[in-house]
Amino acid sequence: MLRPPLRLPCPPRRAASTGPGPGRRLLLSTPIFYANGPPHIGHLYSALLADALHRHRGLRGAGPGRLSTGTDEHGLKIQQAAAAAGTSPPELCERVSGLFRQALTRAAVSFTDFVRTSEPRHRRAVCHFWGVLRDGGALYKGRYEGWYCTPEECFLPESQLAERRDAQGRPCKVSLETGHQVHWTKEENYMFRLSAFRGPLRDWLRDNPQAIAPEPFYRRVLRWLEEEDLPDLSVSRERSRLPWGIPVPNDPTQTIYVWVDALVNYLSVVGYPEGHGQWWPAACHVVGKDILKFHAVYWPALLMAAGLAPPERILVHSHWTVRGQKMSKSLGNVVDPAASMEHYTVDGFRYFLLRQGVPERDCDYYEEKVVKLLNAELADALGGLLNRSTAPSINPSNTYPSFSQACFPKLLDHREANGPGRACAEDYELVASVASLPLEVAAYFEGFQIYKALERVALCVRQSNGFFQRHKPWKLDRADPGEQRWLDTILHVTLECLRVYGTLLQPVTPHAAHRLLSRLAVGPEERGLSALTFLPRYHGDPCPFEGRQLGPDTGLLFPRLEMPGRPRVDPRELRSPTNGRCK
């Protein structure tokens, strides 16, 4: 086959807006989700990770930001799913895309762009991108044959296949990674000269060790580039086999490969081909590990061939299993996000996935685990502490009490807490832990370790419960001025801790955080992260909340949950003096 010379472009220039600083732009994106079936928790996990990063960045005042998501609506799987459902591809995509938009909205995903690959703006961007590849010599037409996996929409080499038997007991070949059956396919189509980009891709990764995270996935991509074949990529399909897709410009016999079509969504949402310069390549893709090669090898190579820089970062996460098994319709263990949000609440569903999800490894989902975690950390520890510290019996004036430096004097070394005050060494350890928490949380978010950020918050919440329980403010004598000052100081420290936790939890549990901060009378303009301070009175500075009337009682911050199928406990029965004790 004739292969025209590829004119490798000069190293692409990065946009001027991508440098560090408060005005820096950033596009955060989820994958666009394949519209051949309803959403499951794997889809929602991708979206919640991206949403938490987007919300955290907004609270930091880091600069203009966008969060894009959407649906991938072309390809053979859509064609087949529509036929099986007795409908047309456009009708199927309209319905399923609506389900995804509804689920993401219900889960409080704060997306700014919802792109559909069937939209005219996207089709225009894909056709222009194809033309740039063609004009640069990156494409050529040739005959291709190989093992094609329809569910994965890609050809697979022999090294990634295994021998199995199908449902009828006949021998067949399947994908090693997914178990999906493959079929031998021969086609004449367009090829992308991926093999020419092995060196540029390696250079890009070696020069940008943070480009792919977590680090095990970065190493995996480098290993692919250094040890595995990198054959040219088939980037079109015969239109007689695949009419549902974007036709190749000037060649009505071919349809653009669904993955090329889908990947360009990251450009179409920022106005490619005219308006993307303000945003690209200041982009951060959040993707599942099953589509890592498409995003970390094919996509950067396509961008380089089109004269564009790769995205700044690709953040990769692993999968969710259910009681140790892969989710599948045949096993009947697919977790319905709508039912989960109904039972565990939106905030509970978000908190569990982001608290328990570890990007480097697959994580297991089962109902007992969800209930135990949410009851322990949201209902008891956090919600109980808020209820106890604002209860009329403890705080009859319903105010943010005063802090007494005589009761809680500042120490240079908290290990020497033997001074004249009432605070003990553990109390100073609490103050030190909470004071360092905002920066620790920010570092974990930046490192794509949201679960570690929540782990640190949960630990501090337990410390705060220990502080409250240790000093038993309900036993102090209000008639004694010294005891009253110490009681006020205990409450002041507790409310300051809660204010920090509520502020830091906004990206993860936005509704509960809003109720907590509203109960503490923290105004909308006082909820940012850039100016978050903790316990300024301890350092001799004024506290803007001291003496402020608290907000109205918003009830339980988070209800205790029962296992599905069991009778729900009346929330009014949960207002016990011990609700919230640190276990």
The low-confidence runs, each spanning 5 or more residues with pLDDT under 50, are 10-21, 567-583
Radius of gyration: 28 Å
Give the rounded overall mean pLDDT.
90
Distance between the termini: 70 Å
Sheet-strand content, in percent, reads 5-15%
Number of strands: 19
Please give the oligomerization state of what you see: single chain
Helix content: 25-40%
* Main sheet: strands, sense, barrel: 7 strands, parallel
Shape label:
elongated
Output the structural class: alpha/beta
Per DSSP, the total helix count is 16
Please give a structural write-up:
- The protein is an alpha/beta fold and about 575 residues long.
- Helices cover about 40% and strands about 15% of the residues.
- Strand 2, helix 1 (about 40-60) and strand 3 (about 65-70) form a beta-alpha-beta unit.
- Helix 15 runs antiparallel to helix 16 (about 510-520).
- The radius of gyration is 28 Å and the shape is elongated.
